Amino acid sequence: MGWFASWLLSGIVTLVQTILDALATAASAILSLLPAMPSLPSLPTPFITAESWVAWFFPVGTVVDVLATVLTLWVIWFVAAIGLKWARIIGSNA
Amino acid sequence: MRRLALTATVLVATCCSYLAVGASPAHAYTGYNPLTDPKNTTIVDNWLRDLDHPPAPASAYTQAETITGWDAAYEAAGTFPDLLTAAAPIVTGTVGLYTGWKIGTPLGNWLYTKIVGDTTVGPTIPALYWTPSKCGTSTSKTDWNGGNSLIQGTGTVQSCTVGGSAILAEGFSLVLNSVDTFCAASTTHCSGNSLAEGGHAITITGANATEAAGTVKACPSTAQIAPCTLVYTSGSTGTTRCSTDGTSVAAGACFVVLRSRAAMLSAVQIQPSTSTEYAGATNTNNTSYSSPSTVNDNAGAETCVGNNACNASGNCALDPTSTYCSDSGTHATGPWAPIYLPQPLPGETVPQYIERLRARTWLGGITLLEDPMSYPSGSPAMQLNPQQITKLQVGTTAATLYDPLTGEPRTWPTTPPQLKYADTDLTITEVPDTFVPEGGGGGGLHFPTVSFGCQFPFGFICWAQDITGWFNVSPAAPDFDFTIPDQTVAGHTFHVGSHYDVNLNVMDSYMSVWRTILSVVIWIGGLYYLAVKLLGFHPGGDPGEALDDGLDLDGGGV
What is the ipTM of this complex? Predict the structure, then answer.
């Protein structure tokens, strides 16, 4: 009986996995039809050199990281705030 | 405050500039001349950097980092003292030229320089030959000592091989018993490339070659030898002739093939390679070199020199952290201590296991095999996830983790396979990536990855990543490389020309601390801003206002 249950469970898992793979394949096929974005031009070498010199004095990369983090957390906060406001309204009406 | 910081920065930069300039006028990476600057530590340091952190593959080198031609040859000569005193590279044989030097650095590391791609061989080479009257009809070493001789290494007179030739690179020396006879007085033996130009004049004393102090001879620029295409056949009975004038060079005589600068420019390269490649070298003298194997080949004995800890009969490796010498000339030993394979941890994947072995300086090759997973259904083996290990094998000794018949785990052997040498190969059998573990095995469903790529509209995300990546550069100390030209005033030239390299890298350690402090402050500032804007965090407010309130400057107070 245990063997049968294992066999049945394995079959279900395989079936669901196949469906997931099919959906992923279909999504990939649709995405491949989208137009490609032009790639950004590469920076000239002197500019990169100048950047590395500036970075020697000041952690430019850190500033970018901090800004990206602040922006990301801000967006997450706005999204979470929607749910929190709803929760507060529901809670106050209860 | 901002003005103060700016002023301080300018002061620091100015001080650094003076320090750097005052420390040492720069040695250009190109145009380096070992004869006047035999110990160029900058170049050595650069090579050590490459050796410690070699980009892979070789194509990862930028053009500026890959030097060829004479610059490479000069560096090779400059970093290996023997070349300075021996006036190499003179290499016997004209076909299949592939030579190089194993360069010892002050810190005991090594790099290889080689001459490759010399396609200008054979009868089309304008040649400078030695007639019997110059080098004698005999090919014996003794007779060569009496006449003009080539030397290959310090104190070693190269014997003349029948029908052979020697390739003499421009810029290096032709070694004669009488420089004047050859170069100055006998213009018929000079070419436009000046045999001894930029090289050493070396005299022969007895059987040894010694450098004559201060006798660097350059051929007169007007001294030309008529282009002579050398046609020769090997062997004692061959006849060697110049095709242009039919001048006969006696069979068995030795001659010198003079490469033009252009030919050598395409022939000499410095190519740092991996330590595995270095390990295959079969000799360490600086005048002849056998191509190292590009595979894990440590065969071949070589004489170890310098700080290398190898035995005389061992193979020499180049990276001190993985130095190993031969065990009977076939395998690596040295600091490597043989290890028995550790038992894979529960759930450990192949990459994780390999990482554990590499951490123990194991350098061997890996062969991955896929397990057919023909274990009984429901067995523990069928519950394994992809990339988990089912079998390890070294040579003929294997450790099987699961019984093929029952799929049950096996006890780890008391004497597991052993990695006897640092380069011992290992075969790993793993669960295939496509294998879906049976239910209850912990694998279950896995969600396939859908790549959104950089197509519209998702490409904007890629753009954002690229743009932020532009600013994610490694800090580098400003480096100004410049030359002050000579000045001519009223017809008089003032020789002020100097080459300077103002490099602020002397402040690297300080700037690293400075950047760390700034980074911490910036992070605190960013998080504080978030706390204020999103969470409404307001600390004590403006200290200035509190002070005003306390003093009650608006009246009625203290």
Answer: 0.74
